[in-house]
Specification:
By secondary structure, the protein is α+β, with helices and mostly antiparallel strands. Among the domains are: 55 residues; 110 residues, Sandwich (Jelly Rolls). The protein contains two helices and ten strands, in the order αββββββββββα. The longest helix is centred in the first third of the chain and has 38 residues.
């Protein structure tokens, strides 16, 4: 892989990782804002008051006992509005009437709550609104520092946004890291000649600033140039042995060896 291509992979990996971080942060911020807005949209109904609530759609709603929060000035003569509060007793007596003074059925609930640091509440009831219109909520209790709140579940959709934020963050980091590793990977063809399998020089190299090591000659030994090197004479060749004419077996002046009498066959010694 060429150097420009490796650089492109590396830059692309960094961009993807940063995009994942930014996307995760934005989704998490969106989830937190959605949560806070849903809490702020809950309609307040202070203790000791009959509060008129207007529903512009049918559906399922919840009644919460908010033990920490703040309520603005409300229309009417309610004495417990326009205050910041933090109570502890969330056992409220609540009754709801429609426009015809018919009581609305309230179902007891216990598995919902909310807390964003500014407001805190626990669910008391769920109710079904079938027709749009005005409804009256009557709240009674012993603790004036608690306010009833009515609306949708503030947690709806928040969990999915936070899961998406974590997924975007993880996906961006993983994909970005993979592209960075691809950009930093070196193929065997890209290795510098003279380097070993692990990327360092296989030949010994003197430390910076020091002359290269040269072994000292053995005392009394003076190495000369090797045979075949420039300036070296060819070694003398031994001459073949000389031979005088007439020498050697079969030569014209050679006398054959003397011959003796024929040998007698072997006989055992006499006794």
């Amino acid at each position: 892989m060429s150097d420009p291509k490796r650089k492109t992979w590396t830059i692309l990996g960094v961009v993807i990782a940063l995009a994942g971080v930014v996307a995760g942060a934005l989704l998490w911020f969106a989830a937190s804002k959605k949560y806070d807005d849903a809490i702020d949209s809950l309609a307040p109904a202070p203790v000791g008051c009959d509060t008129t609530l207007q529903f512009d759609r049918a559906g399922t709603f919840f009644v919460f006992a908010e033990t920490k929060g703040e309520v603005d000035n409300l229309d009417g003569d309610c004495a417990n509005d326009e205050q910041a509060y933090e109570g502890s007793d969330d056992s409220l007596d609540i009754v709801m009437f429609d426009e015809n003074s018919n009581e609305v059925d309230l179902q007891r609930e216990t598995d919902l709550s909310y807390d964003n640091g500014t407001s805190r509440g626990n669910v008391l009831y769920s109710l079904e609104i079938e027709d749009e219109g005005d409804y009256t909520l009557r709240v009674q209790g012993d603790d004036d520092e608690v306010v009833a709140r009515v609306g949708s579940d503030p947690n709806d959709g928040v969990g999915l946004l936070r899961i998406a934020a974590i997924a975007a963050l993880v996906a961006g980091l993983v994909l970005g890291l993979l592209f960075i590793l691809l950009g930093r990977r070196r193929r065997p063809a890209d290795r510098t000649p003279g380097t070993g399998d692990y990327g360092w020089d296989a030949q010994p190299v003197a430390p910076p600033g020091m002359p290269p090591y040269i072994p000292s000659p053995t005392p009394g030994h003076h190495p000369g140039p090797a045979w075949g090197e420039p300036g070296q004479a060819t070694p003398p060749q031994p001459a073949p042995p000389s031979r005088t004419p007439g020498e050697g077996w079969g030569g014209p002046n050679q006398v054959p060896p003397p011959t003796g009498p024929p040998s007698q066959p072997w006989q055992p010694p006499s006794r």
